[in-house]
What we know:
The strands form two sheets. The chain has a five-stranded mixed beta sheet. Strands 1-2-4-3 form a four-stranded antiparallel beta sheet, with no helix packed on it. With 225 residues, the protein is α+β, with helices and mostly antiparallel strands. It has seven helices and nine strands, in the order E-E-H-E-E-H-E-H-H-E-E-E-E-H-H-H.
Amino acid sequence: MKKDILEKGAILQRDRETYAIAPHIPGGITDTATLRKLCDVADKYGVKELKLTSAQRIALFGVKEEDLDAIWSDLDQQPGAAIGLCVRSVKICPGTTWCKRGVQDSVSLGLKIDAIYHAMELPNKMKMGISGCMLNCAETMLKDVGVVGTPKGWRIYVGGNAGARPRIGDLLVELGPDEDKVLAVIADLVEWYRSSGSEQRLGRVVEQMGFDAFKIAVLGAKATP
């Protein structure tokens, strides 16, 4: 029986014969040349359906297994981390780059986070979201790691997820507008999770430990004012 092909970013579809693939598009931000290439490659290999996904990717559906290598070669793009125990695509709202409601530059911060963590292997999957204001258009509260812009800086939330048992993330820390400080906290968090010995999603780890104990474990002395 056919299965997902992790190393090729290929997800077996309902027909149990064809696959879906989704090139990595950081933050869902692309250009017309890339879009034309996607369409040209889809036409070349008879891919009839493309979908704009909730993870800010463009997925190609109905891909034949024998065409996977050639399609990836023609696209000349990295697969989006749509499957596997790793950091999935980082969801980013338009922030102050484009949105009139943005109060922090979620695009700048989000692309930095994406460059560091996208596809990083972890004990379980991890989703991240970066919103430039409290309207949370990147669904930040439902991410394992969510960063939200405020007029004063950034809030980092942890342990959110959707799924069959959804969970709203807990506020880990509030910071000023310095992106480097946000990146430092996320680095501590990810490193702690990698070495925690747990293979559960981050929200379940928080629930088992209790949030106060989790906060101290991740932030150490920085957990207290």
